[in-house]
Amino acid sequence: MAEQNEQPPPSKLTRSKQRWAREGRFLTGRSSRPEQQRLPPGQHLTRDWPVLDLGLTPQISRERWRLDVYGAVENPLFWDFARFTAEPQTKSISDIHCVTTWSRYDNQWEGLATRDLLMACQPRREARHLVLHSHDGYTTNLALEDFAADGALLAHSWSGAPLEQEHGGPVRLVVPHLYFWKSAKWLQSIEFLAQDAPGYWEVRGYHNRGDPWTEQRYSGD
Ligand SMILES: Nc1nc2c(c(=O)[nH]1)N[C@H]1C(S)=C(S)[C@@H](COP(=O)(O)O)O[C@H]1N2
Ligand SMILES: [Mo]
Questions:
Q1: Which residue in 57, 87, 100, 170 could disulfide with 65, CB within 3.0 to 4.6 Å?
Q2: Cβ-count burial of 39 within 10 angstroms (0-12 exposed, 13-18 middle, 19+ buried)?
Q3: What CATH architecture is 42-49+60-214?
Q4: pTM attached to this predicted model
């Protein structure tokens, strides 16, 4: 049970994923568009929902959870779960595409649209990038416009029920147009920045942006 933001020692999966990045594993060299083909190149469809993490599952109750929004914003936020869910709620349905090649269609999410979060925190003019920080020590970075994209939300529910702990509950990010590693689980804080700052996988050989349609799996692709 991790309470601190300390990364666990690299698991076997983490070491394999670093090796896949070095080898360029799974790359097809094809590219596609969502209007042409629902499944991005090199992906296969799964009906179950795999769990991917660094080898630990933070146990954070809704009562103890806080969302900390800081950095280059006019209105820093520090919200508990009740305050978070007092904001206008959004439901959206989207597909998941994990860089390890599984995709899962039609996930029903509910939470706070990232656009509504931006309305509340008011990023300053210089804020062009964000880093998401999670309770397991995981981080991932996004450009502001990718964070603000259609269908992106801070989700507390999936299929009409509270998001399971193993899938990132109480609250995770969902950014459906990028590979799923950008969708931080066990969200703790959001840091707005003028300069980009690569996260956990982005410094371990994974692409800085991660567009599944152009197979931005690894850095240097
Ligand atoms: N905090 C945190 N978020 C994370 C991860 C993680 O290890 N820790 N893994 C990422 C990866 S690689 C994927 S594919 C998805 C997996 O989410 P799931 O376990 O709900 O399928 O979460 C992403 N977000
Ligand atoms: Mo992943």
A1: 170
A2: middle
A3: Alpha-Beta Complex (3.90)
A4: 0.96
